[in-house]
Specification:
Blueprint: H1 16-33, E1 37-38, E2 44-46, H2 47-54, E3 64-66, E4 72-75, H3 80-90, E5 98-102, E6 105-107, E7 119-128, H4 134-152, E8 156-162, H5 163-172, H6 178-186, H7 193-203, H8 207-221, H9 226-234, H10 240-254, E9 265-267, E10 281-287, E11 296-300, H11 304-307, E12 315-321, H12 322-331, E13 344-348, H13 354-366, E14 371-373, H14 380-389, E15 394-398, H15 400-404, E16 407-412, E17 418-422, H16 426-430
Parallel strand pairs: 1-5, 8-9, 13-14, 13-15
Antiparallel strand pairs: 2-4, 3-4, 5-7, 6-7, 7-12, 8-10, 10-11, 11-12, 15-16, 16-17
Helix pairs in contact: 1-4, 5-10, 6-7, 9-10
């Protein structure tokens, strides 16, 4: 009998697993730079926890089962309910604001497709206790820092809007079915002109209203100045909630420069996000050169904590998944940029020098340098092939002639430059990474 991974699940072998580990380490490190503290929650939760947030329909999308205590439980399909539960339990003893970061594995029972598997890892950043726009600005600033750190600088934009404005627009247009109106706006980029018009008509928008709304959306699509779009929205005589939404966006855009977000934020009138618990600001990241789905999404969900008995607590968060990021990094030729587990490879020219090579390997490891060497007694040519296969950053060759003088050859695998240094200087010689693409080492 033969076995293979279940449909929708993936195995990760070297060097892929190492690249993923490096990606996650960079995300964690960058989130900490922005003051987010890491937490962990269980992989199995009560199924009722997810029903409270998403309704009975969530059961079809989860790996749900009865445990040995005959309780309805599930593998977590998203992290927000667990965070809300945890915060509600500890809210009286946790000082505000709270800035949490988590990087759990999640499971969703849905049809596998490109960028969407049934088991995946997702980074979440959440801020509790901040009612003002500072939370949104902080989240987007941290997200920018993470995307820049993993090699995506200047390759994306953050589209933002406020659902209160969308609802106020629907009211102004005489919408009879607000849910249908939100779905129509959400489908705008996927629908044809005719389909969008039909969607709006089903929501109760007149031909005149459709034209006025489409003209406004077109202005934002042409990237007209954000303030001009907000001024036009102000002229629609929106409800008080809609006006609050406009001022909210003005505040976020006004903070962009100081938060390092200048040139990154773009108004998107069609952005509503499908999740019903968002209460005002919503945002998504999209590539400016890569045609793909949203890189991540998030927004403000001020009423969610109340569902779990935690009282009225303002909250804002975002989540970015590993599968989409991997596709993006591959398309932009940045995936191999993620470092692997082998930093330095020590090779030796003959069997007599294996002891010297082993001592050097141990010295580097004791100094915290990830180092490996040959275990199969291969020839020097075979060891060099192995170093190339392992995509080591630095190569140290223990040669007969050099070792007779107490020296070894150190080669930078990314630049091809090499030098002969005394054995005692090897740690210093290999701990100064240089930029540049990997090069194949001559045999």
């Amino acid at each position: 009998m033969t076995f293979q991974a279940l449909r929708g699940f993936r195995d990760y072998l070297p060097p892929e697993a190492g690249r993923r580990t490096s990606l996650f380490a960079t995300m964690r490190k960058t989130a900490r730079l922005y003051g987010f503290e890491e937490i962990e929650t269980p992989s199995v939760e009560s199924l009722e926890l997810f029903k409270v947030k998403s309704g009975e329909g969530i059961v079809e999308e989860t790996f749900a089962f009865k445990d040995k205590g005959d309780r309805d439980v599930c593998l977590i399909s998203e992290n927000t309910p667990s965070l809300a539960r945890l915060f509600s339990e500890r809210s009286k003893s946790i000082p505000l604001p709270v800035k949490w970061m988590a990087l759990p594995k999640l499971w969703r029972y849905e049809e596998p497709q490109s960028g969407r598997t049934r088991e995946f890892t997702q980074l979440s950043l959440d801020i509790y206790g901040v009612p003002g726009r500072e939370a949104e600005v902080e989240l987007l600033s941290a997200a920018k820092g993470i995307l820049d750190a993993i090699g995506l600088r200047d390759k994306y934009e953050f589209r933002i809007f406020d659902r209160r404005i969308t609802e106020a627009l629907g009211e102004r247009l005489g919408v009879g079915d607000m849910g249908a109106f939100f779905r129509a706006m959400d489908r705008y980029r996927k629908a044809s002109v005719t389909e969008f018009s039909s969607d709006l008509a089903r929501a109760g928008v007149s031909q005149e209203g459709q034209q006025r709304l489409t003209d406004l959306i077109s202005r934002s699509e042409r990237r007209e100045p954000a303030e001009a779009i907000l001024q036009e929205l102000s002229s629609w005589d929106l409800s008080e909630e809609g006006r609050h939404g406009i001022e909210n966006l003005r505040g976020i855009l006004g903070s962009a420069d100081a938060a390092g977000l200048s040139g990154t934020l773009v108004l998107d009138l069609t952005l509503v996000r499908g999740l019903a618990y968002y209460t005002s600001t919503v945002f998504e990241a999209f590539g400016t050169a890569v045609a793909t789905r949203a890189w991540f999404g998030g927004g403000r969900y001020d009423r969610l904590i109340e569902l779990f008995g935690g009282g009225s607590v303002p909250a804002c968060g975002l989540a970015m998944g590993d599968q989409t990021l991997e596709i993006i990094l591959r398309e932009l030729d940045q995936w191999t940029r993620q470092t692997t587990s082998v930093d330095v490879y020590v090779a030796c020219a003959s069997a007599e020098l294996r002891g010297e090579a082993r001592r050097l390997v141990q010295e580097l490891r004791s100094r915290g340098v990830p180092t490996d060497h040959d275990l199969l007694e291969r020839t020097l040519s075979g060891q060099l092939k192995d170093a190339n296969r392992r995509t080591a950053r630095m190569l140290v060759i223990v040669g007969t002639r050099e070792m007779a003088e107490g020296k070894v050859t150190v080669r930078n695998m990314r630049t091809g430059q090499q030098q002969v240094v005394p054995v005692g200087e090897v740690p210093a010689a290999v701990t100064s990474p240089e930029d540049g693409p990997p090069v194949q080492t001559p045999e």
